[in-house]
Every structure is written in C-alpha cells, then in structure tokens.
Design brief:
Two copies of one chain form a homodimer.
Chain A (H helix, E strand, L loop, with lengths): L7 E4 L4 H11 L7 E7 L7 H11 L4 E6 L3 H5 L33 H15 L4 E3 L15 H11 L8 E3 L7 H11 L21 H12 L9
Parallel strand pairs in A: 1-2, 1-4, 2-3, 4-5
C-alpha cells in the first residue's frame, strides 16, 4: 500500500470481487484518497455500474468516474457473448470443459485495455497505484486475471522513465469464497452488487458467474441477498 | 509477416513513421488485407487523422477505422501538453536536456492504451498481428517506443490461452531519416502527412516533432513538401 498519500485508483465494476476490494483498501492507512474508476464497455450487465457507484460511495471514495468506452462493444462483439448484441450468454452447464480456459464470456484483451487506461489516469494525476479485483480461481479461467499477467503488465509499466504506476491485485491468489468471507467481515452490503452476465431484472442463477457467486456464498455458509 | 492471410491491423496516425509503415507492410505478400486503425485521443493535432485516412486509402487498406477515445483528453490533460486544453507545446530549444527522456509532449501511457485496444480488435476478428510505427531514435525519448517495451508488451499478450496477438514494430531500430528514405522509395506522398504538435494551419517548424521531421528530410537530401 502506498504511503505517499497522493491517492490511489481502484477499479470497481460493481461485482463481488471489486466491491470487497474497494472496502478492503479503504481500511488501509495512508492511501491518500480512493479514486474509483468504472468502465462502460458495452457489457450486457451495465446495471453493475449502479452497484459500482453505491460501493464507491459506501467505501468513502473521494471520486467515482465512469469511463464510457462503449464504442468498443460493436468492435469486439464477435469475440464475446458478454457484449450487448453478441451471442447469448450460455449456462455454465452448457459450456464444454475444453472451453473453460478461455470461455465465451471472455472479452478480448479487456483487462489490459482497462488497466492501461487506469494507469494513464493515475500517472496524469500523480498517483502511483492502481488496484483491481483479479482473482485467479474463477470457475472459468481468464488469462488476464492471473498472477503472471499482473507481473508481466507491471514489467511493461516499470519502463516508465519518471514515475512508474504499479498494478496491485491483492486478491489474485484468493478464492471467491475467501473474498466473500472478507466482505462480510468488512461489512460490505452484497445486496448492492451485481454479477449476472445476462443483465436482466433478476439474476439468472445459471450463467457462469451466477453459479460461481452462489457457490462462494454457500461455501462460507451465508445467504446471497440478491434476488434470483 | 503473417502468412495466415486473415488480415493485419496497422495503426496509422498520419505522421511520417506510420504513413511509411502502412505502405511498407502493404508491399509484403500474404498479409490478407490491411485494417487501418487511428485514434482520436483529444490530440491538438487531430488534423493528422485526415492524413491517416489518405494514407490508409493510398496503401490499399480494406478498411480504416477512427476510434474516438477523446473522452480521455480531459482526464489526462494534466499529464501532457499534447492534449487540447493543456499547457502550450514548447519549442524544442526550450526543453531542458534533463526532460528529454520523458518530455512534456509525452502522453501518459498512450501507446499501451492504443495497442491494447488494437490487439483486442485484432483478436475479436481473428487477426494475429498489429503493426505500429515505433522508432526508438526520436529526438525525444519515449519509453513506450522502445524495443524493450515491444518485447514486454508481447510477453503480456503471449499469455492468451487461445490465439495470442503479436505487436510488430519493424521500424523500432530505424532512425527517422531512414524511414523518410524508405518512404521516398515506396512512393509515399509526404504532402499528406502531418507531424506538428501545435496543430495550426501550417506546421510551426520549431516544436520538437517539426525539428525532428525537418532534420530527417535534410539528412536524406530531400525537401519536405508540407508548408511551414
């Protein structure tokens, strides 16, 4: 954690991991103010952004910016079912095992895009750290949520000749159940989080992220407060 | 050069390096079609985009997309004189030597942002290579135009579990004079290129990029056809 006191950037999507993350870093001393950043990238489940705003405020962020990069949606649609207008989101049970290392809900190079913008924003404002809620043990596997990805992207940023920004992912080795458990300890109101990839009125309970979320709450013996 | 024939992405800014680049890769066999991509990132010299369109067409690109990420301008303005609304662009002679490794015209993390979006676009459309016109021997030094940057960003992308996109910068070890020389050999019409950071009616001739451009033309004994 930075002790420079000049503030930190925290990526908050409004899902479980990043909602717990923003409360987690808010408790650490010396961060100098949380600048929450969310992205509208044309995701089906843009209602998660309302949850992001709620969690940023609840954690005492000094600002919350939603960056609109939704123009990317149509450009990337062929590559992901997560984007509005693309193919339908499948149930987890219908995703073949062979696709689980890079499933249809993967958005091409999403995290590198979001982190590079967040790092630019941090750098322009004299901040040195960007936090994101990557956790490697997803039901699905995403190459851009791993410790190796984190190390390699920091190796790029370390080349900066003035002040290098560092990407920090304190949950990268934690399971979703551990993160949910931490969230309850931190007093996170999970009724204001959103995970379902389908982005309808209530969560579907069967898409990959719903299954993963429900399993995590079950593992810590708690009830998920959102409607299914 | 790819021989898969599924097309390649080429970043074309409308400056000298990328204009020569698009003609250079167009001559290589087996690329399967050039998808030119430009960015409006709130740069003062957005007239370079008109030149980008000209050069993409002249090189026979199958499409030319201009991605509007100008919302980033106000967010990054404090970090760069290159962005409209920021501080004035200085003359090269007024930039202290100590600032030349990361000068005021540097845009925070720009190339990582642009390359990550271009890589996402390529990946979503089954293309495997993204070309950009980095050349390390600028009058000024930018950490995100070096061979080391190129290698490290490719180390990130290599983690992709399906088809990794590769960033290619064939001019990374060339001087601007060599690139201008190649451009004349390739028949590039330099009257349709734009470099001046000030973005006024005619090029200023004194800002860092004008000085660099003029020196390069002089070094190969050719006249720069644009108006100063």
């Amino acid at each position: 954690m930075s002790t420079h006191g000049q503030g930190i950037v925290v990526l908050v999507s409004g899902g479980v991991d990043s909602s717990v993350l923003v409360h987690y870093v808010a408790r650490e001393p010396g961060h100098g103010g949380i600048h929450a950043v969310s992205f509208n990238y044309g995701q089906r489940h843009s209602r998660e952004l309302v949850c992001a705003a709620y969690q940023a405020k609840a954690a005492g962020a000094v600002e919350h910016k939603i960056l609109d990069i939704s123009f990317l949606g149509p450009l990337l649609r062929e590559g992901s079912v997560l984007l509005a207008g693309g193919n339908a989101v499948p149930d987890l049970k219908d995703v073949p095992d062979r696709e689980r290392t890079q499933p249809p809900t993967y958005v091409p190079n999403r995290n590198m895009m979001l982190l590079s913008m967040a790092a630019a924003y941090a750098e322009a404002h004299g901040m040195r750290e960007v936090y994101y809620g990557a956790q490697a043990q997803d039901e699905y596997g995403y190459w851009d949520c791993t410790r190796e990805f984190l190390e390699r992207i920091n190796a790029v940023l370390a080349l900066n000749r003035k002040e290098a920004v560092q990407i920090c992912a304190p949950f990268v080795d934690k399971s979703k159940a551990e993160i949910v458990g931490m969230g309850f300890e931190l007093g996170v109101d999970f009724s204001h989080t959103w995970s379902c990839y389908r982005g309808e009125e209530t969560a579907c309970g069967t898409c990959p992220t719903c299954v993963e979320r429900l399993n995590a709450f079950k593992a810590v013996g708690m009830e998920d407060p959102i409607e299914y």
